[in-house]
Amino acid sequence: NAGVTQTPKFQVLKTGQSMTLQCAQDMNHEYMSWYRQDPGMGLRLIHYSVGAGITDQGEVPNGYNVSRSTTEDFPLRLLSAAPSQTSVYFCASSGLAGRETQYFGPGTRLLVL
Amino acid sequence: SQQGEEDPQALSIQEGENATMNCSYKTSINNLQWYRQNSGRGLVHLILIRSNEREKHSGRLRVTLDTSKKSSSLLITASRAADTASYFCATVNTGTASKLTFGTGTRLQVTL
Asked: Could you say which of A42, A101, A103 has the minimum Cβ distance to residue B48?
């Protein structure tokens, strides 16, 4: 099992550009989520999904879109990048609607100039 | 807003000593989880303790939960340099199933 994979590992964007952060898991988990981590802070939930076709907003959803067309994939789209979105982004997956252990990907470092 | 607050924010100890980190939270929980993050890496799950449990052990790790005080502690015994990392508590709150809310973390430095 590869677990949770994320691509790219690092990305530089200019303000206003759009991009998609990819996340995939091979554990057949129904629950997937996206977090961002800023320096000196814990993780903040952006969006999450309890199954294919179902998504919901987390704590900091503005500026981000998600979709869940398959169980395995949960891409995060930045619509129009802003410097405030410079952060490290983590994807995670879990069974039992997110109540149980979450498995994290290695992260994507995003720099918006 | 972040649910958990870890205390202390940073902790420096020598190898072989015990390290204790505390987590306080604000609302009733379904469970509380502890994670470790090595610098620049993803988070790794350590222990999950449910609201009806008071203590759990895993190897050198011991977690306690006091729901009346809305607090939890993580004890690492006989620490090693490899334990150097940031440690986060995270809660699944009652009524908000499917959301894991993280604290701000404790940075642990274990020196030789």
From this structure: A101
Sign of CA dihedral B6, A110, A17, A4: negative
A20-59 exposure pattern, b = at least 16 Cβ within 10 A, e = fewer: ebebbbeeebbbbbbbbbeeeebbbbbbbbbebeebeebb
CB contacts of B2 in chain A (<8 Å) are 41-42, 44
CA distance B23 to chain A (A): 13
pLDDT in tens, chain B (112 residues): 446 688 899 999 999 999 999 999 998 998 999 999 998 788 999 999 999 999 999 999 999 999 999 999 999 999 999 999 999 999 988 776 668 889 889 999 999 9
Burial, B69: exposed, middle or buried (Cβ in 10 Å; 0-12, 13-18, 19+)? exposed
Interface test with A, best of B5, B35, B43, B86 (most A CBs within 10 A): B43
Cβ of B100 and A98 within 8 Å? yes
CB–CB of B103 and A42 under 8 A? yes
Helix (H) or strand (E) holding A93: strand A87-94
The three-state secondary structure class of B99 is: coil
Locate B29 and state its tokens.
């929980």
The torsion of the CA quartet B76, B9, B55, A35, rounded to 10 degrees, works out to -110
